[in-house]
Amino acid sequence: MLDRLTSMQIFVEAASLGSLSAAGRALKLSPAMASKYLDALENRLGVKLLHRSTRQLRLTDAGEDYLGSCRRILQQVAEADAEITALSSEAIGLLRMNIPLSFGAHYIAPLLPEFSQRYPLVEIELGLSDQQQDILAGGWDLAVRIGQLSDSNLKSRGLGNCPMRLCAAPAYLQRYGTPQHSSELARHNCLSYTLSAMQRSGNWAFGRQGEHKVNVKGNLQANSGDALLAAAIGGQGIIYQPDFIVRQALASGQLQEIRLELPNIDLGGLHILFHPSRSQPAKVRAMIDFLVAKLAT
User: Fold this and answer.
1) Buried b vs exposed e over 252-290: b needs ≥16 C-beta within 10 Å?
2) Which GO terms describe its biological process (predicted)?
3) 12 plus 62 within the same structural domain
4) pLDDT above 70: residue 2
5) What's 59's domain CATH number?
6) For 190-238, what is each residue's pLDDT tens digit?
């Protein structure tokens, strides 16, 4: 019989990510194996938890009810593991971290050699993804998230602000002009990030709370901030990205910041999220304190 906890993890991840394949990848399982786990869970329960089609997954009424129970159970298992691990005062063992792709590559990965020198008995698994994964269901010890935090039972520590920057290459601005007003963006080639709600459907959000929607269009959309950065440096158009993605390009002069009459949206900062257990394992405490010391502003 397939492991019941893994079946629950697959179900929670699939509900969170909207895809069985994505749930399988998050748990290092093939799409076929992820489907087997979900089938086994539904057969054991005698109900359908998800409406599945080639385009989308949708929770059934039973699935809606069961999802909350699964999350509570997985949280309790994670807390039980953490409490036992925390009995050791030494930072040791596998530490699984879920980090946004660009932030992890540019700001977390370069710090890891120093962390490993301090804590040589800790093995790190760095999961880089811009898709919002369920931390408890995915078995992650901690995660970094950008923006306003949704209500959850997870604990958090702040890493500082994360301002947005509107910018383009000097060559692009010299050729097409520098917009001074938000309405002028409609005449420019605006390169959008597809995983952000504030850049979907041909609108970019400005104002501290994103209350001003500005119509834009462009010949490139991507699910990678680094891809948009490279295109902007090459002179393809204007990008609207977090400071951590464009900071070096702005400092080197490869990009030039554009200031409009509207303020850029306030994303809500950078946060470390971790399990709510009262006794965090030493490896988790060590990494949280290390990142706060290195990155918090």
Assistant:
1) eebbbebebebebbbbebbbbbbbbbeebbbbbebbbeb
2) DNA-templated transcription
3) yes
4) no
5) 1.10.10.10
6) 999 988 878 877 899 999 888 999 999 999 999 999 999 999 999 999 9
- Under 8 Å between Cβ of 11 and 57: no
CA distance 252 to 184: 26
* HSE, side-chain direction, 13 A CA sphere, residue 25: 11
- Whether residues 18 and 74 share a domain: the answer is yes
Residue labelled with tokens 């089609």: 53
Q: Which ranges constitute the DSSP H helices of 128-224?
A: 135-138, 170-176
Residue 95 lies in a domain: yes
Note the pTM of the prediction, 2 decimals.
Answer: 0.70
HSE, side-chain direction, 13 A CA sphere, residue 253: 1
Q: What CATH code is carried by the domain that includes residue 129?
A: 3.40.190.10
What is the 8-class DSSP label of residue 183?
G
pLDDT in tens, 10-66: 999 998 888 888 888 888 889 899 999 999 999 989 999 998 876 778 899 999 999
